[in-house]
Each structure stands twice: as C-alpha cells, then as structure tokens.
Design a protein that fits this description.
By secondary structure, this protein is of the alpha/beta class. Helices cover 39% and strands 16% of the residues. The chain has two domains: 69 residues; 269 residues, Metallo-dependent phosphatases (Purple Acid Phosphatase, chain A, domain 2, 4-Layer Sandwich), CATH 3.60.21.10.
Length: 347
C-alpha cells in the first residue's frame, strides 16, 4: 500500500512538472511576442519623431499677399471693325421666317447705329489689354441688295440708287462717330464689293467693279474724306484688298468667290481649300470676309455675320439661324493670330 502511494505521488509530481514546463513555454512565447511588438512600436515612434522634427524644421507657412496692380498695356495693336451684308433696303417679314426676324429701313438704321456704338464700347474694353492707336474699318460688300432677282424689285423698299444714298448716309455718320469717339490716331477703310450690288443681271469677273453700285459708293466717300488726313480709304478694283496690319498681311474680300452649296460639314473645308489656292500666289496671314451670313472664327480666317439677320434666302441656302451681328477683332505686333475676336451685336 505504501508502494502504491509512493507511485501515485511520483505520477502527480511528473504531471506537475509537465504543466509548469508548458506554462513556462507559453510565457516565453508571450514574452517574445511582446518584445517584438515593443521593438516595432519603438521603430514607429522613431519614424514619427523624425517626421515631427522635419515639420518643425519647416516652420510656419508664409502667407503671400497677392495684390492686383493694374499696369498700362504695352506694345502696339490695331483694332478692326468688319461691316458687311447689311442689305439695307431688303424687307424681311416675320411671317416668312417663322417669327425669328424682321427687317426694314427703320430696323436697319437702328442696327447700324447700335453697331457703331457697341464697337466703340468693345474698343474701350480692349484697351485694358492692348495699346490701340489705329483703327481699321473694313466694308466688305452687300451693303445693298439690289435688283439681281426679279422678286427683289417687288419686295425691296428702295431702288439700288436710293439704297446707295441711304447706305452712304449711314456709313458717313458711323465713320464720323468713330473719328470723334474711338480715340484712334488713324482710321483706314479697306473695301470690297459684294455680289448683290451690281448693275448687271449676271455677275461680271474682270469688270465687276465697273458694274458695281458699291464701288461707285466707296469712291464717292473716298473723295468726300480726302481733306481729312486721319481717314484713309483703300478702294481696289480687284477681288482682293490687301492691308498690312501690325506686320501681318490681311486679305479682305466679300467671300462670294468661295463656292459652298451647303453640307453637313459646313463651309470650313471649302474655305480653307480656296485660301490655300490663293496662298500659292501670295500668302495671307489672315483672310477676312462675309457673304455666308454666319460667324466662323479660325486661325486662318474670320467670317463675318450679317446685319439683315435671318431671311427667306438664308432658309433656302440652309444658313443656320444667328442673331444679327458684325465683327470686332484686335491684332497686335507680337502674336500671329488676333488676340481678341468678338461679335458686335446689333440689337
């Protein structure tokens, strides 16, 4: 019995030793893990402290006080006003264009007056950016509608000769207004004849100017302003009228020599094709023209809109609707393309 008791005590002692050994192993593992976590925490603390030291070294951010200091514009620039496609004596009844437009002599005179007034406002605005001392007023044809179609004899409110007198009064009033209020030292007026203001039923090519009411009108006004050296008219007999503006060769014309009969792509491609052909004879930095009764502004050309606005002819030729406007842009000596291009709204 004593032997059994001794054997039992020995077995208990062995189990106790094993239990202690197991607990010691577990404690050692926990201690090793705790040391590992401590080392990781110390490393993270060291990184954090280095970041704090870096941020402290940067110091507080300095606030920069940006103050707007307007400076007077420098360099040289020329403003250009483009006038075309007035069709002053043509009547547009609202019922013929779905109420989108209306036009008669009273409306034409009002729009012309507004064009010159708004042009001066745009000129003054542009002077915040450009030093503008010279002004170009390009008059590019179809100022009258004429009798080139039979229905125009029925619908026009004036005959071609009467319309010329009306246009002359409007242009002279506008030029005098610009001379007085533009603040420019010179006003240069390049012209172009349109396809409407002709004396013949069929268009002429080599004798177009000799058969143009508008060419006669331009020559009359050139003579009228001859004693005023500030104002220079540039009336040509050919299709193109060239003018060097701030070192750029600008080619003015009416635009009727560019063939476009509609199309989903618009007139840009046929325009560029025509310009590339003309450039083979003499390269232009910029072409300026009208005729198509819409606005397109491109690095190579500026297409002027019309004063008459949307008309039955525009519907037939599939011109998009656009609010009546003319064109204002600024050319400076430094840049290859106009620095400012804006519509002159007429209403």
């Amino acid at each position: 019995m004593q032997a059994n008791q001794a054997e039992s005590e020995s077995s208990d002692s062995l189990r106790s030793q094993r239990q202690h050994a197991k607990e010691n192993s577990k404690l050692k593992s926990q201690l090793a893990l705790a040391k590992q976590k401590l080392q990781q925490a110390e490393a993270e603390l060291e990184v954090a402290e280095s970041k704090i030291d870096f941020i402290r070294a940067l110091g507080e951010p300095d606030s920069v006080d940006y103050e707007f200091l307007p400076k007077p514009p420098s360099g040289q620039a020329t403003a250009v006003i483009v006038l075309s496609d007035w069709h002053v004596e043509e009547t547009v009844s609202a019922k013929t264009v779905n109420g989108l437009n209306e036009y008669d002599l009273v409306i034409a005179e009002r729009r012309i007056k507004k064009t010159f007034e708004n042009a001066v406002q745009l000129l003054e605005s542009a002077r915040h950016l450009s030093n503008i001392k010279d002004l170009v007023v390009a008059i590019l044809g179809d100022m009258i509608t004429g009798y080139i179609h039979e229905e125009l004899q029925e619908n026009n409110s004036l005959s071609p000769t009467e319309a010329c007198l009306f246009v002359q009064d409007q242009i002279v009033s506008g030029i005098d207004f610009l001379e007085k209020h533009s603040g420019c030292k010179t006003i240069t007026i390049p012209t172009a004849i349109g396809n409407h203001g002709r004396t013949t039923h069929k268009m002429r090519i080599s004798t177009a100017s000799q058969n143009s009411y508008e060419w006669m009108l331009y020559k009359q006004m050139e003579k009228y302003y001859k004693s005023r050296p500030k104002i220079t008219w540039k009336v040509e007999t050919g299709y193109h009228n060239w003018l060097n503006i701030q070192g750029k060769d600008v080619r003015f014309h009416h635009g009727d020599a560019i063939l476009f009969s509609g199309g989903i792509g618009g007139p840009t491609v046929p325009i560029l094709r025509a310009l590339s052909v003309w450039d083979q004879s003499r390269r232009a930095n910029l072409d300026v023209f009208g005729h198509l009764h819409t606005n397109i502004w491109h690095d190579k050309f500026l297409l002027n809109n019309c004063l008459i606005g949307y008309s039955p002819l525009a519907i037939k030729w599939k011109f998009p609707y656009s609010e009546p406007s003319q064109l204002f842009f600024v050319v400076d000596k430094k840049r290859a393309t106009p620095v400012i291009v804006q519509k002159i709204f007429c209403e």
